[in-house]
């Protein structure tokens, strides 16, 4: 019987590890500072020496609960920590303290806006299975080779061991590489808005593992699941998924079988390669950690933490589009970074038109902020000052050209655009008498051009405007000048 | 009674990275069985009205504040020295075999 041409459907789920930005580690007072000398942030608890007692950092719980709330997860009335046993040198105790069957939160969702060049933007709700707290492992340096294979021995740095992580597990609701990368970006946006993590993928404070399979149509049972690791950017997540979808479909269609395994994304070669077979691998023998008591987050504490949550990116996007009339694109760009969004809101609060503010902020200001490697809250040019600048243009006091000219100075030092315009005499010439006088001067300077114009060479109007701008250092009101110029050129 | 088979002993030994001579497996399976039997006495207690717990001490919500207390370089040195091999500021481990 010929097989019906049912399309392949990819099924993707993400496990995201978010480093929580606390000062000290999850169960001990050692520092979490990144980039220090090896093994400077170790202590007897990190290394699990006999007689030590881990105690939960309260801020870790706060950050985990806040993240869970932002992801619409249900906070557990009761949860506990478990030991996950495995031997690997990056794990000082030979077990990782994690949460197994009683995570802090379960069953949530987020709304993701999926935008791709050349395709329609759409909203999709992605389910979230759970969020749990756990400790990070240390870092290995492989000697004699840049990779594990070929190295003769390894060096271990436990500075990162015991740093708090929240692991966020999505439901298998994602269908394309783009959806996977948009989901991961939204998770990062959320944790950054909350201030619970810097979400830096390069430094490893946000790490994503992808679970991916393909099946024949949306009613078919799931295919064999492959795990992909080692993606250092959102675009790598997208590309790794798309590559893996194609690879699995090709494997099935050529009569092969997809193995259950872990594969690594190779950024240089742009492909996934087999790391190890998962079959019959780890038996983690989870059991409750006897050193750590159970956690019960009271309703009062939940209410308090909930009241401290900021407006989240998706709510902002909807509000900007609905209440401020911005396009979906502008709303998305402005809300990508909470500092930029808050700057924008302050400009609007100072009375500025939202669309005009958005143009300046996502254009010149964003370019400056990126070039300087700063954030919007560090700008010396304050939101009220940008509002003032835009107001000067709207009221016709200065031209857009003048505004762009004084902007670099404002970005560097801040200050009142109004004062600068006044002190440097940059105000727009909008006195008809004065403009007329300037035009008369121009006519006596270029009598031939006037004659040519009157003989039908209408394009010369642009020449006169150009000269007028030059003679007034761009300060003449262009609209008014054009009106008067036409009148005078055509008056005969 | 719970049976601990020879295969169980081999599996647990492997997971614990213990090398057990084949001749001793019988001995260990008997010993482990004895331990489980001893613990199994608990099954005779009527726990119908006792809520389940994972712990003997009922301490809930034991927290510490998020403050840093750095260990002295002395402590760090002592910990590094505890390792079978040390290389400068690193712990050194033998070649890692894939799983």
Could you please describe the fold and organization of this structure?
The complex is a heterodimer of chains A (492) and B (99). With 492 residues, chain A is an alpha+beta fold. Chain A folds into 3 domains: 8-303, no CATH class; 318-423, no CATH class; 432-489, Arc Repressor Mutant, subunit A (Orthogonal Bundle). Chain A contains 15 helices and 15 strands. In chain A, the strands form 3 sheets. Chain A has a 9-stranded mixed sheet. In chain A, α5 packs antiparallel against α6 and α7 packs across α8. The longest helix of chain A is centred in the middle third of the chain and has 20 residues, at 234-253. Chain A is elongated, with a radius of gyration of 31 Å. Chain B is of the alpha+beta class and 99 residues long. Chain B has a domain at 6-43. Chain B is 36% helix and 9% strand. A two-stranded antiparallel ribbon of chain B has the order 2-3. In chain B, β2 (86-87) and β3 form a beta hairpin. At the A-B interface, β2, α1, β8 and β9 of A face β1, α3 and β3 of B.
């Amino acid at each position: 019987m010929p097989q019906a041409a049912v399309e392949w459907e990819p099924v993707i789920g993400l496990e995201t590890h978010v480093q929580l930005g606390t000062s000290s580690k999850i169960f001990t007072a050692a520092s979490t500072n990144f980039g220090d000398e090896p093994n400077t942030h170790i202590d007897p608890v990190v290394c699990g020496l006999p007689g030590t007692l881990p105690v939960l950092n309260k801020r870790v719980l706060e950050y985990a609960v806040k993240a869970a709330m932002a992801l619409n997860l249900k906070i557990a009335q009761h949860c506990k920590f478990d030991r996950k046993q495995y031997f690997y040198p990056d794990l000082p105790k030979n077990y990782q303290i994690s949460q197994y069957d009683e995570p802090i939160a379960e069953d949530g969702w987020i709304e993701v806006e999926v935008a791709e060049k050349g395709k329609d933007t759409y909203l999709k709700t992605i389910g979230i299975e759970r969020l749990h707290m756990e400790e990070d492992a240390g870092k290995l340096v492989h000697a004699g080779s840049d990779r594990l294979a070929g190295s003769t021995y390894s060096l271990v740095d436990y500075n990162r061991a015991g740093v708090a992580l929240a692991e966020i597990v999505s439901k298998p609701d994602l269908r394309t590489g783009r959806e996977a990368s948009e989901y991961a970006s939204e998770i990062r946006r959320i944790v950054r808005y909350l201030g619970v993590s810097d979400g830096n993928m390069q430094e490893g404070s946000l790490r994503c593992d992808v679970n991916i399979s393909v099946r024949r149509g949306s009613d078919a049972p799931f295919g064999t699941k492959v795990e992909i690791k080692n993606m250092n950017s959102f675009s790598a997540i997208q590309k790794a998924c798309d590559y893996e979808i194609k690879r699995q479909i090709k494997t099935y269609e050529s009569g092969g079988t997809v193995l259950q395994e872990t594969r690594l994304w190779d950024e240089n070669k742009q492909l996934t390669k087999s790391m190890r077979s998962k079959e019959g691998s780890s038996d983690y023998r989870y059991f409750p950690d006897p050193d750590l008591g159970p956690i019960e987050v009271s309703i009062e504490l939940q209410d308090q933490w909930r009241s401290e949550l900021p407006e989240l990116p998706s709510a902002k996007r909807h509000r900007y589009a609905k209440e401020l009339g911005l396009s979906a694109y502008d709303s998305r760009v402005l809300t990508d970074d909470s500092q930029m969004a808050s700057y924008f809101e302050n400009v609007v609060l100072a009375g500025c038109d939202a669309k005009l503010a958005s143009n300046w902020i996502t254009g010149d200001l964003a370019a400056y902020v990126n070039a300087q490697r700063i954030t919007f809250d560090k700008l010396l040019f304050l939101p009220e000052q940008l509002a003032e600048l835009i107001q000067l243009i709207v009221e016709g006091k200065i031209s857009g050209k003048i505004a762009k000219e004084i902007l670099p100075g404002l970005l560097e030092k801040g200050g009142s655009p109004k004062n600068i315009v006044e002190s440097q005499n940059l105000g727009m010439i909008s006195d008809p008498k004065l403009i007329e006088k300037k035009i008369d001067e121009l006519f006596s300077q270029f009598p031939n051009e006037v004659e040519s114009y009157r003989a039908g060479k209408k394009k010369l109007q642009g020449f006169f405007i150009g000269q007028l701008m030059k003679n007034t250092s761009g300060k003449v009101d262009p609209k008014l000048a054009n009106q008067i110029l036409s009148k005078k050129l055509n008056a005969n | 009674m719970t049976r601990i088979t020879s295969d169980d002993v081999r599996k647990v030994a492997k997971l614990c990275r213990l090398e057990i001579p084949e001749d001793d497996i019988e001995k260990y399976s008997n010993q482990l069985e004895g331990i489980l039997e001893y613990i199994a006495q608990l099954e005779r207690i009527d726990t119908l009205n006792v809520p389940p717990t994972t712990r003997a001490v009922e301490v809930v919500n034991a927290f510490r504040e998020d403050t840093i207390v750095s260990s002295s370089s002395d402590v760090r040195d002592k910990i590094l020295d505890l390792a079978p091999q040390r290389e400068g500021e690193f712990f050194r481990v033998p070649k890692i075999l894939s799983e």
